[in-house]
Specification:
By secondary structure, the protein is mainly alpha-helical. 84% of the residues lie in helices and 0% in strands. It has a domain of 75 residues. The model has no long low-confidence stretch (mean pLDDT 90). Pfam families: DUF6481.
Length: 111
């Protein structure tokens, strides 16, 4: 069985030169694109960019809507808490008068 032989410096440089020439010939063999193909690619890129911009705008609007909804919920909670506090400070007579008014309104609706 033959042992492994390290390639010499000259062999390595020759292999590197061959690889460079092969890559260069492969690059040079590539056909040049015509204007129609380039225009089509640019148009496709522009459509992709527009779609991405629309998606970003939609996401931004959704975030703003969520923030507005959260602020509205917070405001409603604060108003509810204020109403409960006002209601807690009412006297028993005022609470009874409100209950009686609701009862009378309910009776009037049933008739």
């Amino acid at each position: 069985m033959a042992s492994y032989k390290d390639p010499s410096f000259q062999e390595r440089t020759a292999l590197a030169k061959e690889a460079r020439l092969k890559a260069l010939s492969k690059f040079q063999a590539k056909p040049v694109m015509d204007e129609a193909t380039i225009a089509a690619r640019r148009e496709a890129q522009a459509r992709r960019e527009e779609a991405a911009a629309a998606k970003r705008e939609e996401r931004r609007l959704a975030i703003e809507a969520a923030k507005a909804e959260k602020a509205a919920a917070k405001e409603a909670a604060e108003q509810d808490a204020a109403a409960r506090e006002i209601n807690a400070n009412k006297s028993e007579a005022e609470k009874k008068a409100e209950r009686d008014a609701r009862y009378a309104a309910r009776k009037a609706r049933k008739r």
